[in-house]
Design a protein that fits this description.
Helix content is 41%, strand content 19%. It has a 6-stranded mixed β-sheet, sandwiched between helices. A 5-stranded mixed β-sheet has the order 7-6-8-5-9, sandwiched between helices. By secondary structure, it is an alpha/beta fold. It has 2 domains: 2-87 and 216-278 and 294-345, Periplasmic binding protein-like II (D-Maltodextrin-Binding Protein, domain 2), CATH 3.40.190; 92-211, D-Maltodextrin-Binding Protein, domain 2.
Amino acid sequence: MHEIKLGFIPLVDCALLAIAKEKGFAEENGIQLSLHKEVSWANIRDKIYLGYLDGAQMLAGMPIAANLGLMPNSCEIVAPFVLGRNGNAITVSRSLFAEMQKSNDTILEELDLKKTGAALKAVIDQRKIEGKTILRFGMVFPFSCHNYHLRYWMSSCGIEPDIDVHLEVIPPPFMDQYLEEGRIDGFCVGEPWNSLAVEQDVGVIIATTKQVWAYSPEKMLGLRKQWVDTYPEALNALMKTLHQCVNWAMQSSNIDELSKLLSSHTYIDVPAEIIKRALTGDIKLKNAQDSTQIENFLMLNANKPEQAAAKWLFDQMVRWKQAENIDIHPDALKNAFATQVYSEHLPSIQYDIEIDYSLFDGKIIKGA
């Protein structure tokens, strides 16, 4: 029996790890899976570095940052499996939403990132004229798609992310509280925390990061390279387990059971009906309003990492001055998005979709 210790954050895209343990797939493959619920991505980073965890659900940017030595308390990481694509949204306070509506009262009907960005810029410009305080947005970690998607969207709409707004790191479970208390004006976070803000009537979802890039890798299975090199049989068993979990999760008949499973205190501790919104893409953008169907809002399939995606994330690190004048070891990105490792352990698995490498502004991700 292979004992494997993995960390996770209470987010809907921890689903495959929860399925592996609770539905018995891990045990069937000879794995004694120990899951550790953490409150922040910094906790995940530190506990992997210290060896308390063999690996974890990781933000897609974390393995890259770790392998390039861009963040403290990090070790070499191999990330051979995409645990989830998309699944994040941008939520603003009701008061900020009301301000945005002054220049465009059809934001939620159109769901056009450029028009939504123009409405936000109009608020920022007006606040400058009136001498009001700068808007504050929460994101979950410096090396996260949340950070990069927010910045990419804002900058494409004429907003300078490091000048016109203030971006700060807040652990996912605290986003709603910070918004309700007025400590931030908006945030970008994974589900269920956007839907919970809507349900509590403290926030309005104005965009999804799926709109920025429709197939963005969001969470990875990140493992200590030392562990991967030492326990190849355990890795093989884990990869096969996760593939079985994907097949189970993609059956629509299992959605209610998965929602209930994730709603427990062990995982997310949020009502199942809120969690189900992300799993079905049936998203309520504003309280007391009909839901909007968003195709592929969260994807638990298409699990093979692509080097093109790793390169785009690295380009964002360079663009936003997180990675300057560094020497990139050839294996750094290769291990961070370990395409070869995936293919070695799951050689017969093919994509059931064609990945689109175009961004919302028409630009193409290089390397695709």
